Amino acid sequence: MTDEIDKIMRPLKHTSKEFWPFLGGLAVISVLGIYAYTQQLIKGLGVTGLNDVTIWGLYITNFIFFIGISHAGIAISAAVRILEAKKYQPIARIAELLTIVSLVMAGLSIVIDLGRPDRSFLLITKFIDRFKYSPLIWDITAVGTYLVLSSTYLYLPMRRDLKVAAERSEGWRKTMFTTLIPFYEEGEEATIDRLSFWLAVTILPVMVMVHTTVAWIFSLLSARPLWFNAFAGPYYIVAAVASGMASVMAMAAVMRKIYHWEDIITPKLFRGLSNFTAITTLVYLYMMMTEQLGALFAGPAGEVFVSEAWLFGDFATLFWSMTTLGLVIPFLYMLIQAFKKDYVNITWTAIMSVILVIAFWFKRYMIIVPTLSIGIQKVGIYSPTWIEIAILLASFAIPLLLYTILTKIVPLIEMEEGHHHV
Amino acid sequence: MYEILQYVVLALQSVTSNTGATVNPLGRPLGYLVIGIIEFPVVILFLAALLGKPRSTKITSLFVGWIFMMLIVFICAVFGLSWLLGIFY
After folding, report:
1. Smallest CA–CA distance from B78 into chain A, residue
2. Which of A116-130, A217-231, A392-406 holds the top average pLDDT?
3. How many of the other CB atoms lie within 10 Å of CB of A117?
4. Which pTM value belongs to this model?
5. pLDDT per residue as tens digits for the range A124-134
6. Does B38 contact A138 at a Cβ distance shorter than 8 Å?
7. A416: in domain
8. What whole-number distance in Å separates Cα of residue A145 and Cα of residue A4?
9. Which residues constitute the domain of residue A263?
10. Do B81 and A195 touch (CB under 8 A)?
11. Higher pLDDT residue, A416 or A204?
């Protein structure tokens, strides 16, 4: 048992020589992004490729993307509790942390997109006036609720692990872990287990509403071709689950490799996640086909126009590359793997997961940019500036930086699970 | 029986119809329904936390306190960010 706990606590106690250069690299990218953002703040949104018609671009793409990534964490973790899917418990916290950092970045993405971000507080002060009609307010409410519940869900079951970590640490680490568990009392686990179960039960519908309200920000705008869509909610949720699961697989594979957790994060676990991701990707491809068929066959003129731009026009290269290389090939790989009994190649599964995640980012870009730049009035294809690219890179570096720092504070695997392995 | 059914239908219509709509314009805006759906699980959570067993006053207080603390952190973060970014204007 001691070996197992020591193994789980390795990231908290030891830091490899590669850690600091990695952290430094992320910090440099983040600082460059912050510098680019200050330029945007000083000079206005004119420094971006956005204009009066293409009002949304990379930032809102990032917003939908990070909201999507945030789904898998709690989905996996809640499944562990509600369905008693203990097999996935070793990656539950890795996934939960991904949820938290993604949600923070999703919120920041909205602020970055605003022309006057200093007025963000209006979202709260005008809540009572606007919640009756504004899908954006619905979304902020859902995201806020989700963030509050997710952080509670992360913290409560972690208290017992922080207690163990405090007992096995010395010096400033002991002080830090002890500070993180105020009012700790022996035997609190039974109450916490009950509360965690109810949190899992209640977070799932909130999670569904988060992405449904994200979808409504677009799909309730009837004048925007390809956005006005009755099944936008489920369509977005499926994308969120597929991309979220893929990102958890990639992250779990990296953690497994770095911290030598081969006997804790087992191949069987990757196989299960890979199969589930394959199914959700297939459902997504089906929904995408249905959407395009409807638009091309009997859609209003605007829908046909944008759909043709996706499939045969200005965006065809991006669309077909994303669909074939990014969605179909990873799906086929995971499908073939599923049919081989007890077989899983973790390296290739992780690579395919990363490809899938990148493809889903481009899919979100495809949702926003064609509709805005040619859907209403053709003003030319939106082209991001260096400022947007720098902020985009920082948008990935900042959550990764946060995550990397958290690996030094938070036990990444529930120690109870560690006991089961011994 | 028919009157009861009619009453139920009217009640449901008042919940779901939009004030902008021509049908039943006196109904509540859809936002009430949406916010209700989003926050309903939280009500269930609080009921379960306060009424369920095993129960510990200390842990239940910690749980409720944590949720309110996170809510305040979220609101303060929005105001703080607004203030910070306001320096540039």
Report:
1. A121
2. A392-406
3. 22
4. 0.91
5. 999 988 888 88
6. yes
7. no
8. 35
9. 2-408
10. no
11. A204
Length of chain A (residues):
422
Q: Read off φ and ψ for residue A410, nearest 5 degrees.
A: -110, 130
Q: Of B26, B34, B72, which to mutate for an interface test with A (greatest number of A Cβ within 10 Å)?
A: B34
Domain boundary assignment for chain B: 27-88
Of A227 and A374, more confident: A227
Mean pLDDT value of segment A184-195? 86
Interface of B with A (CB under 8 A): 19, 28-32, 34-35, 37-42, 44-45, 48-49, 52-56, 58-60, 62-63, 66-67, 70-71, 74-75, 78-79, 81-83, 85-86, 88-89
The total of structural domains in chain A comes to 1
Selection from A169, A53, A300, A192 nearest residue B63 by Cα: A192
For chain A, percent of residues with pLDDT exceeding 70: 97
For residue A176, being part of any structural domain is answered with yes
Q: Which of A119, A192, A202 sits opposite B42 (nearest CB)?
A: A202
Tokens 């979202």 found at? A123
- A44, burial (CB in 10 Å: exposed 0-12, middle 13-18, buried 19+): exposed
Q: Mean pLDDT over all residues of chain A?
A: 90
Residue pair A274/A334 in contact (Cβ under 8 Å)? The answer is yes
Q: How many residues does chain B have?
A: 89
Contact B85 A117 (CB under 8 A): yes
Structural domain includes residue A413: no
Asked if the interface predicted TM-score (ipTM) of this complex is over 0.90, the answer is no
Supply the pLDDT for residue A420: 43
In a domain, A35, yes or no: yes
C-alpha to C-alpha distance for A43 and A29, rounded to whole angstroms = 21
The mean per-residue pLDDT over the stretch A1-25 comes to: 85
For every residue of A78-119, DSSP letters joined together read HHHHHS--GGGHHHHHHHHHHHHHHHHHHHHHHHHH-SSGGG
- For the segment A221-241, the average pLDDT, to the nearest whole number, is 89
Angle at the Cα of B52 from the Cα atoms of B46 and B55, rounded to 5 degrees: 100
pLDDT of residue B41: 92
Over residues A124-145, mean pLDDT:
89
Chain A nearest CA to B41, separation (Å): 5
Amino acid at A355: I
Q: Looking at this protein, which amino acid is placed at residue A29? A: I
Q: Do B45 and A205 touch (CB under 8 A)?
A: no
Within 13 A of A291's CA, how many CA atoms are on the CB side? Answer: 25
